[in-house]
Amino acid sequence: GLPSAVTIYEVGPRDGLQNEQAIVPVEVKAEFVRRLVAAGLPVVEATSFVHPRWVPQLADAAELMADLGEAGRHLPVLVPNERGLDRALELGLEHIAIFGSATETFAAKNLNRTFDEQFAMFGPTVARARAAGMDVRAYVSMCFGDPWEGAVPIEQVVTAGTRLLDLGASQLSLGDTIGVATAGHVKALVAAFADAGVGTDRLAMHFHDTYGQALANTFSALQAGITTFDASAGGLGGCPYARSATGNLATEDLVWMLTGLGVDHGVDLDAVVETSVWMAGRLGRPSPSAVVRALGAA
Ligand code: HMG
Ligand code: MG
């Protein structure tokens, strides 16, 4: 059967807003985060401490976290290196996420590192974070396909993922950065991690909905025993360094499906829809989420 409960890991403020052309004012971002927390989302990834020239949309990361104050301390933030970690430590943050690549090309495009060099960058970052008592999540991108390299061998994804976990990360989020995964591929990847000694308790799935497969992929992952799913309110998102990356699986679409399946999630659907409609108004365009369209028409 399916798991009785899952954790939804909300990435809208980070994965969503990193990809917006317009710069969203910091007070709007803070309100977005607060509304998502109030809607019952147990984890809300707030922003990234990356180089501000690489992602100008999130250059206000320190201001945002200062604005969120005490309530923001346990919210995860993306950190690629020791410089990013220093910035997070200065603010007393407790939870970071590193983000590696399963492919050589995307490591270069997204991190300015070779495949091997990325681990040398993350190693001391994770060691220092753990010594400071932080929790560390690791993402691995391009798990199902890469816009430059095409098909990505499953063994290569398992190698990248286990190397990230071995650095000291508590959870590995398997990213379908460009949304090309299909349900059978998801099943095969989860099985390959199991063969490598990485159980579903340490895995999360991060689907983008480019080909409209994110919910089917989620169902396949649920059947395989995965209990943490990344999603983005209103289906915002994409990676500025991955051509053809579109929005994440919309949180509303995920919540709708889980509720129908009787899988507990603890999230207030109406509150998330209301938040997405509000955010879409701020961004000046409608949400791509079908559930937002169905329920959000005021
Ligand atoms: P680099 O140019 O190689 O950096 O970029 P460097 O280490 O050579 O340092 C150069 C300068 O940058 C130095 O300053 C550093 O201090 C500064 P200088 O000494 O010249 O004055 N610097 C920083 N400043 C502020 N914050 C920092 C930082 N690091 C260095 N953290 C780097 C390497 C990793 C920094 C760069 O490539 C970068 O910032 N990349 C981030 C790209 C990104 O954020 N992409 C989107 C997130 S990933 C994603 O969306 C996928 C995901 O959703 C999952 C999925 O869908 O698959 C997670
Ligand atoms: Mg993503």
Strand content: 5-15%
Q: Which structural category fits the helices and strands?
A: alpha/beta
The 3D shape can be described as globular
Number of strands: 9
Family: Belongs to the HMG-CoA lyase family.
Keywords: Lyase, Metal-binding
Protein name: Hydroxymethylglutaryl-CoA lyase
Organism: Nocardioides furvisabuli
Overview of the structural elements:
It is built from 12 helices and 9 strands. The chain has helices spanning 12-16, 26-38, 61-68, 82-90, 104-111, 115-131, 154-166, 183-195, 214-223, 251-261, 269-283, 290-296, and strands at 7-10, 43-44, 47-48, 77-78, 95-101, 135-141, 171-176, 203-207, 228-231. A 9-stranded parallel β-sheet has the order 2-1-9-8-7-6-5-4-3. The model has no long low-confidence stretch (mean pLDDT 96). It binds 3-hydroxy-3-methylglutaryl-coenzyme A (HMG) and magnesium ion. Residues 15, 175, 177, 206, 237, 239, 248 line the site of magnesium ion (MG). 3-hydroxy-3-methylglutaryl-coenzyme A (HMG) binds at residues 15, 18, 48-51, 54-55, 78, 80-81, 83-84, 87, 99, 110-112, 139, 141, 175, 177, 206, 239, 241. One of its GO terms (molecular function) is lyase activity. It comes from Nocardioides furvisabuli. This is Hydroxymethylglutaryl-CoA lyase. Belongs to the HMG-CoA lyase family.
Task: For this entry, give a set of tags.
12 helices, 298 residues, 43% helix, 9-stranded parallel beta sheet, alpha/beta, binds 3-hydroxy-3-methylglutaryl-coenzyme A, single chain, binds magnesium ion
Summarize the model shown.
Belongs to the HMG-CoA lyase family. The chain has 298 residues and is an alpha/beta fold. Helix content is 43%, strand content 13%.
